[in-house]
Amino acid sequence: TVNPDIASERQTASFSVEKLTVWLDGGVENTRTRRAVVEAIESDPEFSRENQYFQSQNERYEAAVRKAVHLQKKMHEMGWTENGPEYKYIYRALAGDVAFLLHHIFIRSISMLGSDKQIAKWIPLASRCQLIGSYAQTELGHGTYLQGLETTAVFDITTQEFILNTPKISAMKWWPGDMGRSATHTVAFAQLYIQGKCYGVHPFIVQIRSLRDHSLCPGITAGDIGPKMNFEHVDNGFLALQSVRVPRENMLSKFCEVQPDGTYVRWGSQKINYFTMTSVRISLLSDEVIVPVMKACTIAIRYSVVRRQSELKPGEQEAKILDYQTQQEKLLPQLAAAYAFYFINDYLQELFDNTYKEIQKKNFDMLPELHAFSSGFKAVVTQHCTSAVEICLRACGGHGYSLLSGLPSLYTKILASCIYEGENTILLLQTARFLIKCFMAASAGQPVPPSVTYLAAVKPRRCPAKNKLDFLSPDIYTEAYQHMAGRLISSTAAKLQDLIQSGVKKHDAWNQCTVQLAQAAKAHCHYIAVKNFAKTVEKLQTQAGIQKIMKHLCDLFALHGIFSNAGAFLHDGYLSGAQMDMVTASYLDLLPIIRKDAVPLVDAFDFTDKSLNSALGSYDGHVYQRLYEWAQKSPTNKQMSPAYEKYLKPLLHNKLSKL
Amino acid sequence: TVNPDIASERQTASFSVEKLTVWLDGGVENTRTRRAVVEAIESDPEFSRENQYFQSQNERYEAAVRKAVHLQKKMHEMGWTENGPEYKYIYRALAGDVAFLLHHIFIRSISMLGSDKQIAKWIPLASRCQLIGSYAQTELGHGTYLQGLETTAVFDITTQEFILNTPKISAMKWWPGDMGRSATHTVAFAQLYIQGKCYGVHPFIVQIRSLRDHSLCPGITAGDIGPKMNFEHVDNGFLALQSVRVPRENMLSKFCEVQPDGTYVRWGSQKINYFTMTSVRISLLSDEVIVPVMKACTIAIRYSVVRRQSELKPGEQEAKILDYQTQQEKLLPQLAAAYAFYFINDYLQELFDNTYKEIQKKNFDMLPELHAFSSGFKAVVTQHCTSAVEICLRACGGHGYSLLSGLPSLYTKILASCIYEGENTILLLQTARFLIKCFMAASAGQPVPPSVTYLAAVKPRRCPAKNKLDFLSPDIYTEAYQHMAGRLISSTAAKLQDLIQSGVKKHDAWNQCTVQLAQAAKAHCHYIAVKNFAKTVEKLQTQAGIQKIMKHLCDLFALHGIFSNAGAFLHDGYLSGAQMDMVTASYLDLLPIIRKDAVPLVDAFDFTDKSLNSALGSYDGHVYQRLYEWAQKSPTNKQMSPAYEKYLKPLLHNKLSKL
């Protein structure tokens, strides 16, 4: 039986949930495959996450390794392959608590950066987990700034080996997943030296543990970096290298090579070494950022139609909290953002695929654009979604704060996405650098990529909207975003030039503009996200029911952005105060409209109860019963704490059992 | 030895750190006392927090009880009393991980709401921990909306008892601290029924566990609610009551009473029942919100002068990350806010003391204002400080995400402050209700409290500032905040009236304005915070060195608020776009000025290393060494995981130990 308060929400859906699900999946075949994978995984007790919220770091790690190993078997059993249609749904079905993600990045690095010979040697072993790999880039003292890495790899011409060293404590590799306790090998990034000359950072395959007994190899110091805010299941590790020798063949050499005589040869951009990171940045968005925010919305919105609190109409039953404007204003923009970023993911995937095709033909021309936008969107999407999950958590009040709600672990995990694979501010500034370059080029009449041609036409203008309904026109708001982004980019470019012309050194001038440059980069990404959403809705013409609600969400996403960044649109008078009041009115009007479909809109994400693992977010809405049931399973209720005998009993007034 | 990168920061301080510390403490006597308390507690190994980041929920709880009990002994030993000058420093010195906070709220409730007879009976027992109390207000189905509580207390005239019941699952008490495993008694809030008539929510003392063997009393179901995002050391509990009888004398009866014949008598406002909550709301700000944000700033700022990353000037040594404008813009406004809210705490304490004095004379007139502003500031300060801690965490990159940085636990703990003791949105709307009332009264020429007299004079105006230096004048920016708050309150009041006049029902109209009402309440509090900071700086005339840097911080706090809420100031043209550019310029100019004193400014908070418990934030700046040392102590490094033998060994290629 389903709680009637949530059941009633489903009876009034303005569209078919199943149709929306299928459309989001990209076709009925995909939906069928996804559900089959989820079913196969969730029905297998080896993959259970039932006790996850009660487990220690050691237990989480052990369970994650168990699952990773069992997954190998399962895939074989089910006939799933890395190239099959099922593959992309497995991680979603596992819901994250599985080991050896870095092992897969190890594989991806070798596949992308390794020579054919290296691929032939390492990939089969790695694919069968006959070795466990890791990806050792970050050091204690260096993260996003890769050029600063301090690990060294000196080519010894006499033995045809590289000698790897950790010259000081800050050079110790720190954070790589799967490295603390599992990995036998790693791709370690180090400064390559040949005959005293430094050739920059390169990747080397290094064995760190014995395959026979898992003991550390000679010259290796490694271990686990200890507790983190989440990722208890991952053994993020440290690694120090003391004169560790690897053969010449262990430097990944698809794009460059050290020849036996010490000659260094390169084919193509050195930047290609970072290409694994670009690819990871894009692929993490879906599983690690967008899926979690979709889950958080599902949990918070379902809970908000079951939770009744306070009187809305005097004398009536307490209202569902989703009927309060403030609750709508917390949750519905996050829901709209979840959809917006779901669509942005497709946009980035396409950009990536196109670039990759060219790279395989050794054409690196699209790399700067891909790098700029994968960086910018990684920053914008992770930042936005992290706030969104926090908002969802807080919108569930006290119960959201219980681990049993599922929200705290979604939050503590997604937060890391703002930091790993490139710190967000640094990434935004890389986007900004590209935008400023394009702006200068466009101003000089030079050609620029299509995504930034608008930079050629930045000028003072005013928004033509006359009433609040005008702001429900995608042309009106997309134009507003475009103008705003263009203004921020051009005014920052102007400030930069002014500073340089007034004698400030280039690097100082850049630094003095970085707050505004980061804003400009965000503005560009926000503009593209709005434009892409509107375009996606436009293409939906054949499915009227879905198009209508998607249009509402697109409007909400756009107007919420204007409402909450009002200053950027008011600053030069593009919008007047009166127009901003229209935006606000249209924005607030949308809330009760979307609220009616809020539950169907999250149902369409099609998460199972097991995948949500939330006492608040289950499909049936039996929130309080589930919280109570789950709480009783807590280890804190298993026995009387020793604290009673040790500390409390001697104090308590025990003359009488009752006072 | 101190890391030279942090040592150099201290040599150039523009003021005496010691003098600032003393001033913040309110005099040298206080500083001395505080340091003595901290020294006494930190030198006692029973209070050590050394392994805290490695402990399970059960271990944290046990340690917290041990500390709470040891504290009783320690206080006796040291001659510290609840009325002595040392008392207020104890909690800060313990740094939070101690049990029985709710026991103290139990004591406070009885002291404030109990009759003299009740106080005489219960307080001595409670003070000696001969019983452990809790405070059972929140239920599974009800939090902030106390009128909706479902627990019942029916007066049985024949036995002169109240019969307490949990009529349904949502009525179960849920969340009360110290209740899951420790408490023997609680103050339970329940709907009072006398002869079928409901008299609303009242507090009752209920025994829940035997004093002899700690078993649950008849009719009691209780336990721990399981894992949370933090507060592992607290046994937040659940409690169901099945026909539990307590004597008539157990209803707290300072302000109302049920007489033997069933007559209900009240002296004074019913709202006084919530007075404990008002008092808790104010007192939690200092220890649970402002101290944590000061700690987070200390950790992040110290780390940011030790961490060097990337080239700022080409060819030079990598720069301290605090030299980047973006890093300054993340951290320094949080530092300014920490100071601003430290001063607001004094403001609220004074308001509370004055009100309490009147209440003791049975004059309840100031209660609405106290309630409105304690609510509003609780919401604004907790929200602002929670974001601030998150910003500090993220500003430390990956290492901030390690529990060993201390930042994750500061964050997960402070986040709860947005929820407990009144959900923030609800609280803001209570503030808004008061402001709207005052605005209506002021518009009608009626008297209003001094803090809101500005509402009588809201009208269109323009800011007189002519250049960026004008924005360093407290009059200019305080005026801007005042105008902005007044405009938001008056325009929301107008919208409310328009809706009602157009036929929308009052409660619907209110709901449709709540997003804007919450904004208006925040704006008022922000204005008061700026004004109070400026006033505090003004009073500092005798200490020129400190006054100068405090003035900078006050300017930064104010301008950061305008910069990041630009829309609110631009909307009606109070500030022009050109003036906003001046604000931005002045704001950004302040960053490098304050950056010079950033380390001394956090040093002045005078936290010991033990109290920070952070591998990143220690006084000596030896960040990397400490991270490495601490990581090695992690239980994940104590032994090879059973996962190797069980899962990995069978898979790995073991023909050769080395590939």
TrEMBL record, chains A, B:
GO terms for biological process: fatty acid beta-oxidation using acyl-CoA oxidase; lipid homeostasis; very long-chain fatty acid metabolic process. Its cofactor is FAD. The active site is at E421. GO terms for cellular component: peroxisome. Gene3D superfamilies: Acyl-CoA dehydrogenase/oxidase, N-terminal domain, Butyryl-CoA Dehydrogenase, subunit A, domain 2, Butyryl-CoA Dehydrogenase, subunit A, domain 3. It is found in: Peroxisome. Pfam families: ACOX, ACOX_C_alpha1, Acyl-CoA_ox_N. Residues 474-652 form the Acyl-CoA oxidase C-terminal domain. The keyword Isomerase does not apply. One of its GO terms (molecular function) is FAD binding. Residues 16-132 form the Acyl-coenzyme A oxidase N-terminal domain. Residues 274-436 form the Acyl-CoA oxidase C-alpha1 domain. SUPFAM superfamilies: Acyl-CoA dehydrogenase C-terminal domain-like, Acyl-CoA dehydrogenase NM domain-like. The keyword Oxidoreductase applies. Keywords: FAD, Fatty acid metabolism, Flavoprotein, Lipid metabolism, Oxidoreductase, Peroxisome, Phosphoprotein. FAD binds at T138, G177. Belongs to the acyl-CoA oxidase family. This is ACOX2 oxidase. It comes from Semnornis frantzii.
